[in-house]
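can u pls check wat happens w/ FHN
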Amino acid sequence: MNMKNILKFVLVIVASIAAVNPADAQWTGPKSKPTKEVEVKYGPLTPPHRTDADMEAFRSYGLGQFIHWGIYSIAGNEWNGISARGGAAASEWIRSWSGPTAPKDWTKTYDNLYKQFNPKNFDAKRWAKQAKDMGAKYVIFTTKHHDGFALWPTKYSDYSVSASPYKKDIVKQIVDAYTAEGIDVYLYFSILEWNNPNYMGKAPKTEEEKEKFGKFLAYTRNQLLEQLDNYPKIKGFWFDGTWDASWKSAYEFTYNLEKELREKHPGLIIGSRFRNDEHGSRHFDSNGNILGDYEQGWERKLPAEFEWLNGNDWDAVMTIPPNGWGYMKDWSGIYTKTTDDLLDMLMRSVSMNGNFVLNFGPDGNGNMHPEEDKIAKEIGEWIKINAEAVYGVRHAALTPSKLGYFTQKDNNLYLTVFNQPVNGIVRIAVPKNAKQVPGTAALLVNSKNLALKQADIGLDLDKNTYYDVILPKDFQPNKAFVIKIKLVAPKAKAAKLMDAKM
Ligand code: FHN
């Protein structure tokens, strides 16, 4: 083989390795585009950018609340004073507690905890009012987590709230209370069920395994149809626990199940985590097309650049502790996110056309963690002042600011400033050929007009001109603040300067 052919052969090998078959989407950096189109039979069932009212509402939410509540909430990430920290992967995974700190016969103890589930302080209306005051526009509620315990009286399992001393339908109370507060409800549903005898992690191979897993698939379908029958007011599902080979092998079933759910509940919103195509690609099919109505992979992480989203809708779900979605009694010795941290994440999300969903993990009696109560109140107080910059806004096509995040609605441009400039000048870069430029500026907090002047810096080859907003010398906020800028048609074009000669 001559050198030319060897080189060609090497290039083909390199290209095939680089060929992307995103069996799982990447969440850091722009999505790599597949190098070649492949046939996909079990791909998307909806267009990548739905324009119906339900999806437009999803786009305008801004802030959501996640609630992880279940049997694990009784334990609170510890047992008899021994912490499960380091013994279980997360507080809501405490059933899998192992190692030297795990209590004797722990799994058996855990699987009997439902006999104690009787949350005497549970009040869905109180939770919904708190979420409303915080400014949440949707809630994602765990109807069943990986332990399989159903918080609704399902006909298809004995392991449900019906078998607990509490007995009542928790999911219905949540749906009714939150809907009454004008907060849309999405049901979290774990496909994975650790202690379901018909569940298996590996793809079923033998006839016996296929029959067993077939029963599990039928059970899953029954519970989902049951939820749509019981709770017709919900807006969508937030699926989880879909990463095992068993579920991935059932791509024809999951394709048809998604179709059936959508036909039964027009407008239903389902994220990209539900299923995969026949090549095993999850979140996005093997040609890079999103599988579902929004990108559902931003979990405890946020995109760094707008381009990473490829124009898809998305939400980011976030814990206040480093990890741990279920109730954790002890928050000492770990970094728990501050209200400022969370407001920054919120505004970063909405500045890139996403929703930010903050997780709450109530205890076994139905009380939020005291720190969660405090944060909910502080977020609500901030949003009450700055709501205009948070809801129903879109990404602003400007060079990102080092001082904070841009959001835009029509000719209103908002800059939420987290980093106050030491010279009191908020400089905004605007393309020289922009059809709209800053005309006036004011502080949203008090509607105080701010001095605004153009700064044509004249940097060589610079495609931008600049507008300086002058902050009042006595303006010393201790929280992020919003500058509202009215965009107007440009008055005069920037002077054309001779290019530098090097
Ligand atoms: O395993 C789950 C985890 O317990 C939690 O529910 C998060 C948040 O949705 N999702 C999975 C971990 O990525």
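The chain has two domains: 38-389, 404-488.
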